[in-house]
């Protein structure tokens, strides 16, 4: 196991300089800090969290605030939790995951108690009630998901509007002129899930520019409602292609199509929005935009850790929308 002396030798600095970098007790140059951080990463060095907490009032814990809704597909949300946890552990931090339904109260309670060094948000709403509380806390914050006003925080999200445009372009290039669009449930829109309407509105606008007719449905998220809805949509189908922006629906789709004898892409072209890991988990053979939960989670942790380690460096917060990448799995014709 690597020691602080190993880190000092690798970075070419004194042991005390590494201690100062970890504790924040003294100012060191950006170049030196970067060499130390690189050495820590290369060696897999984990600081003694208990000793550091006593010496610096730092807990080496990140508060991860997640809200699980009954109408959402939990496996999709867990895709973001794991890379955040992994990235935090690699940086020497533990995760305190808080799932309290009153998100604003949870952030206030945890941040004011001094239990965490920084705060991370998932399930970010357009008008997120947790943000006003975060503006008052002393710890830095970051989030995966784009609110209406991200000012003051590092924010990372998929470029959902461009994702919608890319999938419509993909189908339009192959001559499709009538498309089914299955979106998240209506509840997601009502509580401010901006990712849902950012994708939908951009897809509908791009489709209109091609003269493509789109029949849009709010998708279900629990069984047997999912299969029942899919069968009703397919019973009435005249469209030649389907875009699915709903994790629960896309996970159930292969079995429904198989039971009806509908072949993809011979009888129906299908595209979706999901991660590569999610696709493997549910054996999804569909062309899709990669949602990049691993990349987004790691970017958010890295930005948050940098602010926790170097609070004296007053850099502007950033809003980064990850460009969508489409993986063609041959499910369109």
TrEMBL record:
SUPFAM superfamilies: lambda repressor-like DNA-binding domains, Periplasmic binding protein-like I. Pfam families: LacI (PF00356), Peripla_BP_3 (PF13377). Residues 3-32 form the HTH cro/C1-type domain. InterPro entries: Cro/C1-type_HTH, HTH_LacI, LacI/GalR-like_sensor, Lambda_DNA-bd_dom_sf, Peripla_BP_I. Keywords: DNA-binding, Transcription, Transcription regulation. GO terms for molecular function: DNA-binding transcription factor activity; transcription cis-regulatory region binding. Residues 2-56 form the HTH lacI-type domain. CDD domains: HTH_LacI, PBP1_LacI_sugar_binding-like. It comes from the Bacteria. This is LacI family transcriptional regulator. It comes from Trebonia kvetii. The lineage of its organism: Bacteria, Bacillati, Actinomycetota, Actinomycetes, Streptosporangiales.
């Amino acid at each position: 196991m690597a020691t602080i002396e190993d880190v000092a030798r690798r970075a070419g600095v004194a042991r005390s300089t590494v201690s100062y970098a970890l504790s924040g007790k003294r100012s060191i140059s950006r170049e030196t800090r970067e060499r130390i951080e690189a050495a820590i990463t290369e060696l897999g060095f984990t600081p003694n969290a208990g000793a550091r907490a006593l010496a610096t009032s730092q807990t080496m814990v990140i508060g991860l605030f997640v809200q699980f809704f009954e109408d959402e597909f939990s496996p999709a949300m867990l895709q973001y939790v794991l890379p955040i946890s992994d990235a935090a552990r690699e940086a020497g931090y533990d995760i305190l995951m808080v799932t309290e339904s009153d998100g604003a109260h949870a952030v206030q309670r945890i941040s004011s108690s001094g239990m965490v060094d920084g705060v991370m948000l998932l399930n970010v709403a357009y008008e997120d009630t947790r943000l006003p509380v975060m503006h008052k806390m002393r710890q830095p914050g970051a989030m995966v998901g784009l609110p209406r006003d991200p000012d003051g925080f590092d924010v990372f999200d998929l470029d959902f509007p461009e994702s919608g445009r890319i999938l419509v372009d993909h189908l339009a290039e192959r001559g499709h002129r009538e498309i089914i669009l299955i979106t998240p449930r209506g509840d997601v829109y009502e509580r401010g899930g901006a990712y849902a309407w950012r994708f939908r509105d951009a897809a509908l606008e791009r489709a209109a520019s091609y003269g493509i007719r789109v029949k849009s449905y709010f998708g279900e998220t629990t069984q047997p409602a999912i299969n029942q809805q899919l069968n009703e949509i397919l019973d009435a189908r005249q469209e030649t292609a389907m875009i699915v922006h709903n994790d629960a629906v896309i996970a159930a789709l292969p079995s429904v199509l198989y039971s009806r004898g509908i072949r993809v892409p011979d009888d129906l072209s299908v595209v979706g929005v999901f991660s590569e890991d999610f696709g493997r988990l549910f054996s999804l053979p569909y062309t899709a935009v990669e949602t990049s939960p691993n990349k987004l989670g790691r970017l958010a942790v890295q930005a948050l850790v940098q602010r926790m380690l170097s609070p004296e460096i007053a850099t502007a917060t950033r809003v980064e929308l990850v460009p969508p990448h489409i993986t063609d799995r041959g499910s369109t014709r």
